[in-house]
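Reopening this one. Same input as before:
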Amino acid sequence: MKRPILLIIDDEPDIRSLYTSIINRNFDFDIIQAESLESAKNILGEVQPDYVVLDLHLKDGNGFDLIPALKKVNKKVKFLIVTAFNHCKEKQKASEFGAVGLLSKPFETANFVEYITAMHKSEE
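Same output, byte for byte:
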């Protein structure tokens, strides 16, 4: 059986490494990383992720701008928004786009794992 593909999009290398480490300890996914909207769009030309962990404030734009492209390559894609900017408008917009949730940085590892588990279980 094919392993699910999880795409991590965050402009901080240490954060991408942290997410990868947590996910590898708890799940059996193929993980791909992108540091920008542009690099994520290039990846989407070759890969159809099942799950995405998406930072909102990237160096080359807003993570919300990538969601239509994600849904175009996989209409069933599940994504979690992770951001340091957790305001009502971000929560509302995440909900409108169909995110499984919006997790505020910094976060407890257990909360991150719960969201990834919820994303994965929704596919089973």
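So the earlier flakiness isn't reproducible anymore. For the record, Residues 13-26 form the longest helix (14 residues).
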